[in-house]
Amino acid sequence: MIKAVIFDMDGLLIDSEPFWRKAEIEAFREVGLTLTENDCRETMGYRLNEVMDLWYSRYPWSEKSKHDVEKRILSLVSHYIITEAEPLAGVHRAIDICRKAGLKTAIASSSPLVLIERVVERFGLKLHFDLLHSAQFEAFGKPHPAVFINTAHKLGVTPHQCMVLEDSFHGMIAGLAARMKTIVVPAPEEFNHQKWAAATAVIGSLEEFNSEWFN
């Protein structure tokens, strides 16, 4: 029996991935790196410090510290989200289904906690989640399951009593590795990809989410 539903944030609750790509391209250009949209897609689901480490290992720069570039990206993403972001289709409906079923709800994201907090405040979701947790506090980010396992512990439930809602491949692997039911809501262009075969279910948007998977 499912007792808690854990939501990813980027790409699931808000279409923030374009903002992340735009911010990364701009911030890395400032230190001499020319990244493409596809380059940025390579790190979807990574923590920001892991993105820094990856690109620095391939194309080390000297203009700024990795920490300064990280702060610049976070500042840009925060600006874009606050000024442009809207919740994706079905977000409020999915959360409402979970709350009406008496389930605990949480966000477990690779994004820094400060960004998670800004998103839920902007969209009036703060009171609808029992817990906000970031992989920044874990030794390993997704696809490692730690962020989901520790979210379950903080909610007071066991991992197998949880359902994960994800949009990325790394997130799906993390949810499955945590031994949780994992529903994937991929980008439209990736919907029919075979890489989602291991998921509990694959849906086109949160408008298709329903309570049948709780039992």
Keywords:
215 residues, alpha/beta, six-stranded parallel β-sheet, 40% helix, 12% strand, globular
Describe the structure in brief.
The chain has 215 residues and is of the alpha/beta class.
Identify the strand order in the major beta sheet: 3-2-1-4-5-6
Total of DSSP H or I helical runs spanning 4+ residues: 8
Secondary structure tally: strands: 6
Q: Distance N terminus to C terminus?
A: 5 Å
User: Which blocks of ≥5 consecutive residues have pLDDT under 50?
Assistant: none
Helix coverage percent: 40-55%
Radius of gyration: 17 Å
* Bulk shape: globular
**N-to-C series of helices and strands:** EHHHHHEHEHEHEE
Strand content: 5-15%
Descriptive notes:
Helix content is 40%, strand content 12%. It is built from eight helices and six strands; from the N terminus they run βαααααβαβαβαββ. Strands 3-2-1-4-5-6 form a six-stranded parallel beta sheet, sandwiched between helices. Strand 2 (104-109), helix 6 (113-122) and strand 3 form a beta-alpha-beta unit. The longest helix is centred in the middle third of the chain and has 19 residues, at 66-84.
Task: Summarize the SSE layout with pairings.
Elements (H helix, E strand, L loop, with lengths): L3 E4 L9 H13 L7 H5 L6 H11 L7 H19 L6 H10 L3 E6 L3 H10 L8 E4 L11 H10 L6 E5 L2 H9 L3 E4 L16 E2 L13
Parallel strand pairs: 1-2, 1-4, 2-3, 4-5, 5-6
Helix pairs in contact: 1-4, 3-4, 4-6
